[in-house]
Design a protein that fits this description.
Length: 535
C-alpha cells in the first residue's frame, strides 16, 4: 500500500534517509571524541599542576625542617639530644606543617620510615600508626627520590587524594631514621571546577545534539513535503496534459504548435483532416511549406509580429485546402521563456466558411450579422434577456461590455468602406476566438459591439476588457490592397448581481461608462462607478 511521504518521515528513518542520519551520528561521535580528549587533557593538566604545586610546598617545608633539626643538633650535647622533646611537641614543626594547609581540604603530616603517621594537621591520629600512609608512601620510599607526587587512597583519610612527599635528611634529634613531609589535597576538591566545566560542556553538547537531531528531522519533513508537493504537482500536470490532449485531439478547431523558427511540432487531427495530410507529413515542416504557394507569406508574417507585446496576432484569410477553399480565422499566441525570448507559438484556427449568411436561410439572416458572423442587435438582446433571467435563478453576477472603435471613420475615409468592413470582420473574428463559449457577443450597429459575460463580477469583467482592449490595439489587419491598419477601442463596463440585474440597467450604465471613456482620451476602459483604466 502506498505510504504518504509526509507521514513516512516520522519515527524510524527510512532506508533512503540513512546517509543523512549516519552523517549526523558520525559528526556527533567525532565531536564527542574531540570534547572527551579536550576534557581529558584538561584533567591531566589540573592534576599535574596541583601535584607540582604540592611537591614544591612539601620541598620548602622539608628544607625548613632540615635546617631546624640541624640547628637543634648543633646546639645540643649528646645527653641533651637523647632528651630532646618529641617532634609533635615542637612549636616550630607545628607551625611549618600548619603553613602547608593553604586550602580547606589540604592536610599535612610527618611520616616515619615505617609508614606510621607521627604528626598530622588537622589531627586525625594522636599517636603513630604503623603503615598509616599506606601504599602511596611505600611507593615514594621505593623510588629512592627525596620528593615525589602520587594520587590515590590514603588509609585513614576519606576520598582519593593528590599527595606530595619530601624526605628529610637523617640525623634529627632522638632518631637516626628519616622523617617524610607529606602534603595532600582531596582530588574531588581540586577537580571541582573541572567537574563543573565538564557538566556544562556535556549539557551544551547534549543540547547541540538534540538541536541537530530536531533540525535534521525538520529538514527531512520539509523534504518529504516538497517531494509530496512535487508529486502532486506532477500528477496535476499529467492530468492537465491529459485533459488538454483530450480537448485538442477531439475539437473541431484547428490547433498547431510551432517553434520560434516557424516549424510545426504538433498538428491536431482537425487540421490534418482539413489539409488532407497526415500528422507525420505536417510535423517538422515549415508553415510556409504546408500552405499553397500563393499564401506562403501569411504565417511567417504572423509569427514575426509576435515578438512584441502582447505577443498575439489574429487574422482571417481564405485558404485552399483538401476540402476546397475555406474561410479560416486564426489566432496566434507567442509563449516566452523566462528570459523573454520566443520559445513556442500556439495557433488556433476556426473554419468560418459556413458562418457567412446564405440568401435562402431566412432564420440565419434574422439573427446573425452578415458582416461579422456575430449575433445582430435583436438576437443579442434576446439572448441577453434569457441569460439575465438565468442569472436571477442561479443568483450569479452578470457583466456587460460595450466596445466602440476609436476613429473608425478615418479608416473608411482613408481606405474606403470595403476596408472598414474588413476591419469589422477581423474584429468579430478576434472577439469570437478570445471569449468563452458561454459569452454572448453581438454587433449593435456600425462599429459598436456588445459582450454579455455570465457569472462574471466587475473585477473579472475589468480584466477581460483590458485584455480585449490590448488585443484590439495590437492587432494588425491586412487589407486587400496590401495596406495594414491598426485600430483602438474604448470600452465601457457595467456589472450587477442577481437582485437588481436588468438588461436595460446594464446597457444604460455601460453606455455612460463608454461615453466617459470616449471623452477622456479614447483607447480607454471605463467601469461604471469606478475610475478610468488605460489600455
Amino acid at each position: 500500500m502506498h505510504q504518504n511521504p509526509i507521514h513516512a518521515s516520522r519515527g524510524i528513518p527510512r532506508k533512503g534517509d540513512f546517509p543523512a542520519w549516519a552523517s549526523l551520528a558520525l559528526a556527533l561521535a567525532l565531536l564527542a571524541l574531540l570534547l572527551a580528549y579536550q576534557q581529558h587533557s584538561a584533567y591531566r593538566s589540573i592534576i599535574q599542576q596541583h601535584a607540582g604545586h604540592l611537591v614544591a610546598m612539601a620541598r620548602i617545608a622539608g628544607q625548613a625542617l632540615d635546617t631546624h633539626f640541624n640547628e637543634q643538633a648543633g646546639q645540643a650535647s649528646e645527653t641533651q639530644r637523647s632528651e630532646a622533646p618529641a617532634v609533635k611537641d615542637d612549636a616550630y614543626v607545628l607551625s611549618v606543617l600548619a603553613s602547608l594547609r593553604y586550602a580547606p581540604d589540604a592536610w599535612s603530616a610527618l611520616i616515619q620510615d615505617d609508614g606510621g603517621v607521627l604528626l598530622e594537621l588537622p589531627g586525625v591520629s594522636t599517636h603513630a600508626v604503623p603503615d598509616a600512609a599506606g601504599e602511596l608512601f611505600r611507593r615514594h620510599r621505593r623510588s629512592g627520590q627525596r620528593q615525589s607526587a602520587a594520587e590515590g587512597v590514603v588509609q585513614h583519610i576519606r576520598g582519593e587524594q593528590i599527595m606530595a612527599f619530601f624526605t628529610l635528611k637523617p640525623g634529627r634529634p632522638a632518631s637516626s631514621a628519616p622523617l617524610t613531609v607529606a602534603l595532600g589535597r582531596s582530588k574531588n576538591a581540586v577537580l571541582a571546577s573541572w567537574y563543573l566545566a565538564s557538566l556544562i560542556q556535556a549539557g551544551v553538547f547534549l543540547v547541540a545534539a538534540l538541536c541537530a537531531y530536531a533540525g535534521l528531522r525538520a529538514h527531512r519533513r520539509r523534504q518529504a513535503e516538497r517531494t509530496a508537493a512535487a508529486a502532486s504537482a506532477q500528477a496535476h500536470l499529467r492530468a492537465s496534459a491529459e485533459d488538454y490532449s483530450l480537448v485538442v485531439e477531439h475539437t473541431n478547431d484547428l490547433v498547431m504548435r510551432m517553434d520560434a523558427s516557424g516549424r510545426i511540432v504538433y498538428a491536431n487531427p482537425a487540421l490534418c483532416e482539413l489539409l488532407g495530410k497526415t500528422r507525420e507529413q505536417i510535423t517538422g515542416s515549415a508553415v510556409a511549406d504546408i500552405l499553397p504557394a500563393n499564401e506562403k507569406g501569411e504565417f511567417p508574417a504572423g509569427i514575426s509580429a509576435l515578438g512584441s507585446p502582447p505577443h498575439t496576432a489574429s487574422f482571417r484569410r481564405s485558404h485552399r485546402t483538401g476540402k476546397g477553399r475555406r474561410q479560416l480565422c486564426w489566432l496566434f499566441q507567442g509563449l516566452l521563456d523566462p528570459d523573454g525570448h520566443m520559445q513556442e507559438v500556439v495557433a488556433i484556427g476556426r473554419d468560418v466558411t459556413h458562418h457567412a449568411p446564405q440568401p435562402n436561410n431566412l432564420e440565419l439572416l434574422a439573427r446573425q450579422d452578415f458582416l461579422t458572423g456575430l449575433s445582430n442587435r435583436r438576437h443579442f438582446l434576446e439572448q441577453a434577456e434569457i441569460e439575465i433571467e438565468r442569472a436571477r435563478r442561479f443568483k450569479s453576477s452578470t457583466s456587460l461590455l460595450l466596445i466602440d472603435l476609436d476613429h473608425f471613420k478615418a479608416v473608411n475615409d482613408a481606405h474606403g468602406y470595403k476596408a472598414g468592413d474588413q476591419v469589422l470582420a477581423a474584429l468579430g473574428d478576434m472577439l469570437r476566438l478570445s471569449l468563452r463559449w458561454i459569452d454572448i457577443t453581438g454587433r449593435m450597429g456600425g462599429d459598436e459591439f456588445a459582450i454579455l459575460l455570465p457569472a462574471t463580477n466587475m473585477d473579472a469583467a475589468l480584466k477581460v476588457a483590458q485584455r480585449l482592449g490590448t488585443a484590439i490595439h495590437a492587432q494588425e489587419i491586412e487589407l486587400d490592397g496590401g495596406a495594414r491598419v491598426r485600430c483602438a477601442a474604448s470600452i465601457g463596463i457595467s456589472s450587477a448581481d442577481h437582485q437588481d440585474c436588468t438588461l436595460e440597467k446594464l446597457m444604460d450604465q455601460a453606455g455612460l461608462a463608454l461615453h466617459q471613456a470616449k471623452h477622456t482620451g479614447r483607447n480607454r476602459v471605463c467601469a461604471w462607478g469606478q475610475t478610468l483604466y488605460g489600455v
